[in-house]
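Notes, p. 3: input format for complexes.
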Amino acid sequence: MSTSTSLLDQVVREIADEMAQRSDRGEVASYIPELARVDANSFGLVVVDADGHVAAAGDRETPFSIQSISKVFTLTLALGKVGDRLWSRVGREPSGSPFNSIVQLERERGIPRNPFINAGAIAVTDLILSGHQPREALGEILRFMRFLADDSSITIDEAVAASEQRTGFRNIALANYMKSFGVIENSVDFTLGVYFHHCAIAMSCRQLAMAGRYLAYAGRNPSTGLNVVQAERARRINAIMMTCGHYDGSGEFAYRVGLPGKSGVGGGILAIAPGKASIAVWSPGLDANGNSHLGRMALEALTRRLGWSIFGV
Ligand code: GLN
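Output follows (313 residues plus glutamine):
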């Protein structure tokens, strides 16, 4: 059953109003100093349905740092480049550990648990980089984002990238550790340079929800009818978002929201209601797992009111 656009508009507006009243907003990430400058009271919610209707509320047009949400798109690109060979470099099991954890890497011989923890995403970035200069790889990622969102104004926030490059000691450790197992092919500096920059892509909720449409509609962009990926690939990326997209908070996200989702420490979440909608929410305050606190609450309210959890109403 499809959701009427007037109901969708109303629910999105109500949720934004409810979130604006709340004082429990979580903590804005500060380990990347530039991210700490963001206004903690920001909130945006955008839902794009199968007919292209856009229901939006709050700071829908304000670009924010997408951070780890970029990992969905780099995974898509890397699968396009090397196909299932990717899975010899990175696993697809939930880690149950924080996003920047190093502990499993030693036991599992440098193979990261999944493509969404930092180690896994760095390994995926390394695959995209192979055979290219960092600038070319980054250009490819940025062009892909612009193509998916149908918006050429999307850019990289260089201040955020530089800030993370200066303070990214954990990621530098992860990359060097993987390099020692031969999991990273390129120079660690080059791979991390591309990784930090794709995490620093700035997008609004509207742009992000537009970019996620191929995952909601079996790999197709419904407005152009063009296939971005095969339906099977979209389904599998959704499965990994469901099981791994919120790190050690993935179980809780599935329990409360019931949609494939990917969070970033910039406070954004991309959530996919297969066949129904692509959803982006942004609230910079994070919970203890580094996932947007109000973002998850908003998605929980949305799926409950619309009966959109993939596990039933
Ligand atoms: N760029 C961030 C990091 O590597 C991404 C983390 C995140 O969004 N969870 O630490």
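The chain has two domains: 5-64+204-306, 68-201.
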